[in-house]
Amino acid sequence: VLLGLRDPSEERDRAIRKTIRSIPKGRVATYSQVAAAAGYPLYHRQVVRILRLDGDRLPWQRVVGAGGLIKLRGGSALEQKMRLELEGVRFRGKRIDMEAYQHAFRS
Asked: What is the pTM of this model?
């Protein structure tokens, strides 16, 4: 770190974590929406990485794939669906009703 400047990836990751934490109970956002709301619109894969590393400390269940699809597989997908249903989120088949449950981030 030169002259007290922060590592840009550290700031990005911090912004993404903060954005994930801001999604209220009973609401969801897509990986792309989280990245854009954090100020890094092309970094949806970084959102996935952060959830893999720090998911146990974040409301990971509130981040879903485009169109309201759960992108996880197997038991993890079932756990995500169950956690969301416990928060009041309803599904239409395999998709979350994004019109009803999508979180709108403030700019």
From this structure: 0.91
